[in-house]
Fold these 2 entries.
Entry 1:
Amino acid sequence: MRQLQDKDKTDIIKGCINGISQFQYELFMRYSESLFATCVRYVGCEDQAKDVLQESFLAIFKYIQKYNADKGSLFTWMNKICINQSLKHIKSSYTVIDYGEEDHSSIADANPSAMELLEANELFNEIIKLPEPYRTVFNLYEIEGFTHLEIANLLKIQEVSSRSILSRAKKLLIAHLQNLQFKGA
Amino acid sequence: MSLNNLGMNKKSLVKNHKIAFDQEKMWLDINRELSKKKKKHRLILLFIFLLFASFSTIFISHYQSHQDKSQDLSTYSIINLPNISIARSFTTKTDLCPKNDLLVNSATPSTKLIQKHKSTNVIESFNTYNHISDQLSTTSEKFDSLYHTNISTNLSETEPLPVLEFSEFLKFSNLSTPDILNIQKQTLKHKLLWNMGIGYVTRALKSDNSRESAELRDLRNETEDVLEQISLGMEYKYITDSKLTYGLGIRLRQITETFQHKYFISDDLGSFDNFAMSKVTSYDYNYYNEYRFADVSTSIGYHFDLKNNINLYFDAGVSYTLVSNYNGDNLGQNLKPQHFNETKYFTNQVQSNLNAIVSYNLSKNYAISFSNSITIGMAGFNPQNSMLKQRYNIYSANIGITRLFGQ
């Protein structure tokens, strides 16, 4: 992704605030591929992710005057809007289930190097193969860096459920990775 | 496995991963949606503008017509001078008339006189006899009006609403910091709104089926004229995640009416030197009546968050009159002016309200708002055992300040 120069960025934001189509197009072309990947990572399906991305860009253009450069980069802000839209899209698939406590340490120590060995592309592909809600919690916790409390509030689940879902997600991911390594060997 | 063992670099790579797709095709879809929204917003703004323009036009024309009327009233004292000669010439005329005619005239009930002789027609018809009046001695009295204009509510003293230039909005514009994690939570959910407004009022007087009641209704419609409504209100609004709004408020209103009534009473004084003599008394009422109401209202509506810090609210609801006070004069059931000063509590009067509010965020916590309101079926003052029922419909334009708070 080509990073925008500050001057470019300011002009584009101003243009988008004023609703000028040329600047909106510029913003879309520069960021849409990265944001599409975010949507795919959360939604898990390219077709649905396209719908989510489209909704996200409509929201971005609607709320861009509220973007505050002091709080973070434009991409981070847009990325969060995409995450938000994705969560909205997949919200219906959540069921509030008490997964109970699990022994996380045993999973973490089971194969600590497995993730390190994986290429970013392969990891991405494995993440999107995770079923809901494992994919979402994994993305939020591991990729975005949310805490379990934040995830619990965001997904309206219990904090302990978030931990359990994450550990199950990791289990599944490790199982996939081991499978991949086995096939590779 | 934690964030550390995933590695910041790998995390960043996954985060910035790109997937190619048909961007042009999606852009066409997005552009089409944006155009639709622009069109929709333009229509809404146009609608609001037209609504404001129409209210302003109605109000200004109404206001001007009453200003003209108040000018007429101020010159009325000059017109009153020949009014004395009316009385004199009337006596003169009766002097010259045969006794039968005199009896007919003097026997006419005062109420009929009110209906038949109103305003300048009386003056014109009787001025033709002015030349005779000088030749004869007359007995006449002119009673000044018993009450005078209530100055405190004179329309000419009503100051126009302050006008805030749009450029001043821009000076204040300080974009609020959004909570980007959740767009829907960016809107502060609690709003406290203070506003004041001025409105155009229409009144409907309903009579029962009796003839007396219909006569009183017609007379009151002739002698009374509704002026403006001024109001002061405070409302609390709560906005849900689904953009629904719930409101609870209190509003003080004052509706002003004019009561203008002029009539003559002729008293037969008998004959003097074969001339019939009569005394004509002219009554001239000119009042400003005040109706005051304190209402509590509830409303439910919908909130649109438009571009450039502009918010739009539409809501509908009902209000309940807690206290109403009436101070003024109108024609009573005996068809003569009567003075009322009454306060009523919990009158079981419920009216419907419709509001359209546009607000502009001056800062994170303050907004200026303009609104149009329609209040339908507001019950007016009804004296006890009254044959008539009066209701108001109010179309008002308001300006106010909104305090936004909460998450």
Note: Chain B touches chain A through 40 residues (CB under 8 Å).
Entry 2:
Amino acid sequence: MASLVPCPHCGARPKEEFTIKGAALARPTPDAGTEAWMDYVYLRDNPRGLYEEYWHHTSGCRRWLVVTRDTATHDIEHSRDVALSQLTDIRP
Amino acid sequence: MTSYRLQTGGLIDRQTPVSFTFDGKRMLGFEGDSLASALLANGRQLIGRSFKYHRPRGILTAGSAEPNALMTIGRGGRTEANTRATMQELYQGLEAKSQSRWPSLEFDIGALNTLLSPFLGAGFYYKTFMWPAPLWEKLYEPFIRKAAGLGKATYEADPDTYEKCWAHCDLLIIGSGPTGIAAALTSGRSGARVILVDEHSASGGSLLSETASIGDVSASVFVQQAMDELHSLSNVQILTRTTAFGWYDGNVFGAVERVQKQVALPNVALPVERLWRIVAKKALLASGAEERPLVFGGNDIPGVMMATAMRTYLNRYGVAPGKDVAIFTTNNSGYALANDLEARGIVPVAIIDSRPDGNSAYAGKARVINGAFVSDAHGGKALSSVSIFKSGIAETIKVDALAMSGGFSPVIHLACHRGGKPIWSDEQSAFLAPNGLKGMELAGAVATTVGIAACLEDGANRAAALIEGLGFKTSPASFGTVERDIVSPAAKPVWNIPGIKGKAFVDYQNDVHREDLGIAVQEGYGHVELAKRYTTNGMATDQGKLSNVNAIGLLAQARGVSPAEVGTTTFRPFYTPVSFGALTGAYHGEHFQPVRKSPLHGWAKKNGAIFVETGLWYRSSWFTRDGETTWRESVDREVRNVRVNAGLCDVSMLGKIEICGKDAAEFLNRVYSNAFLKLPVGKARYGLMLREDGMIYDDGTTSRLSEQRFFMTTTTAYAAGVMNHLEFCAQALWPDLDVHIASSTDQWAQMAVAGPKARLILQTVVDEDISNEAFPFLGAKEVSLFGGQLHGRLLRISFSGELAFELAVPASYGESVADALMEAGRNHGIQPYGVEALSVLRIEKGHVTHNEINGTVVPADLGFGKMVSSTKGDFIGKAMVAREGLTSSERPQLVGVIPLDPNTSFRSGSHILEKNAAARLENDQGYVTSSAFSPHLRSTIGLALVKRGSERHDEEVMIWNGIRNEFTPGRLCNPVFVDPENEKLHV
């Protein structure tokens, strides 16, 4: 039902305020080749344990975050603003 | 009549009688009664029929685990089925009806099912499916549907309101028995924010049923004093009638508060139920323990009851269970009841104790039979006698009530909701909470602490430790001596009782009896999860609160293993049923979702708009005029008028995004597939946004208002998505770019003025020269309006193919400006037009929308191949749009389609076949994406995605609607039906 996501700007907020995009992958360069692009666009790991995902604080500060989430326990290990890496990371 | 109200005693208000009805019969109870206690006080023990065999059933418990006493409460839209009579507070005028009976509770035809019981055993549903199919449909299923089922829901709307809210605390304490109260006093006195929840109407838990004293006062007075202190602390929130039903990620708890379920007519200013989400830094689970039934023959006959429940009815409600009471127990719990009964002048006729040595401390008058079992209870609608089995010798004694206690199961449900598995303890004969819980601790009986004194101490100590861990200073609360404390340590469980002759029920609510579990094991369904599905043990509204551990014990014995090896089924929320109303909260009816109204909504309304919901928006569909009887008449008129005079259309709901910064142009260049870097100031450009997989995501125009400032429009549907996407690109992909993005959809009222007379009309309000020379096609600039009274943005863009402008003004001026334009255009024949006409106009012009941009098309499919830049170094979708499959010449391409005979028609979604091809999937050439009646061509026209469509103009085809079996001969054509040379745009 309810769980909380630590936003580095807004503090702990209900997950309903967020939109999840999926795995936080680095975007390949335009000439990286078909295989790299197929990986980036279509293929996803499905690990048990810590996983980095892009979350958007859509109904909050509207910043994109990299959220490190444990896929087995749903515990959020860590979250950081994807762009403003110089900001202090917030840990729950 | 067996059970009855005692002359004195109990925590009920005998000065306040409460009138209620049960199956239409009027009865009296007292303020403070539960529905169950009031029924028992009225001598009512038969309160329902069982689910499958329709056996007479009585009240078994005094709490939320009740499997039998499910009733339908209330009338009309307030009808609530499957209400547990044990949890329902009595109120004036309460109407209760029994369930699962027909035609009446006393005489029930379904009881014949008992005769069919050999066929209705475990796996019945699965086995019957094996029988001849026609029999199943015609006979068995209707029979089962009629016989089975709990209460019936009402079809009437619920007149009451519900709400949802959040709460935050340092410590959440679940349960307000001795443990919870001690914990609340300890933590509350420290100043920490404490929430104390309890599912019952009054705080106190088991203390309300106790005859013990704490310090110098009775248990109930102790509760009163403690609660008075807690109520005086502003940092402590006490929620009674509130069930904590789930433990979720982030130490968030779900709870439902029954705010007004104890009144006949709720106060409309308050919700009837409130759904809480409680964020707790720490939680203390003090949920106590549930007494287990014993599985003997006839253990479901009305008059058989849990021992602690019988004690509650006796001590809290002043209700005696009967005159001749026997007690069957495996532990000391039964003796507490024996003492209390004796104190009220009811000496039990026998205490049947399964332990060979019994309870040596018992000094009461009842006859004690040690090392014995009740093998069978006898009676029909009421208990008449029990058979006692001891060392192979049977004895029958007359009784009208039988209490049973098979030991206690800690109520660990919440502790297991986050995936932890319960652990079997041989020592405690119970499943205990998983180890290593984060954010939650257990105290009191749920942690196998026994006795009031020990629970008080445990609650205080654990709360102190938790609160100190959060940085508060405190010391555990201390309490006076507890007199007449009941300490009932765990005893050896008795799963299989010898000498049983009748049906021995394990799960009362699902009518699962002992032999069913044996069958499950024999037939290979002995795994606990399989046995649950095969026998239905542990399903339905009580989710096996009383039955699961007994079932596991019986499965373990049948399989010859320990209960630890059998394990439990998974504990999931909700602990007890939660109403749809509470989960829905305020989100129903017109509040189901927000309504978005354009700043021009009022203007549209007074001009006769018929609105249509598109997403959250209310858009004007068309504007009916006097004498028009069909929507088509209105739409055709609006379309013609735009082509001949001019029309005004509200386009405020288009997404509007401000993009600024030194790198704004570079940013746009990367998010659009076509070039934007060199877009001149004062110009608008149509842009295509791709997804990374190369498909088109959205389209729209973006205008350069100054060197570093752009104004983007998106489609209505994708406004929010595009905004999120742009933010992702700016923040995640290219954080080095200096670009700032803000949505301004709600800040602008935007109107399209389209038609040959558009300029004439607009020029009357726009101060600047907007002649074709001064402001040519695709011009975009900030303009002054009404002699400098107002400023807006003017774009010379066209969706209709006519000379057209879009004017954006600050939202609050929208209606006045639209009024002024209508006034200025009156003599030029201006008329408002809606989205239906807008759609016809764009189809006539061959413009695409998300009907065509459907997630499977690339720019070349729509004839936009040149809009994919080959010179730009990078843009979203660049790498993937060049894939082989996306450049194939066989791909569907945008094409126009018209019927050969203009008097015939076709619909969107129809498929295109070659002229003489059979109507089969393999001959499919594509399909019609958009269609409309074109007043301009006086024919239905359509846009379609057809294989190699751009090469097939003028080909005759068959338009096939397979759903309606319609065939329309047609012809493919240029998708631009009006002004293919774009001359009108440039006048």
Note: The radius of gyration of chain B is 38 Å.
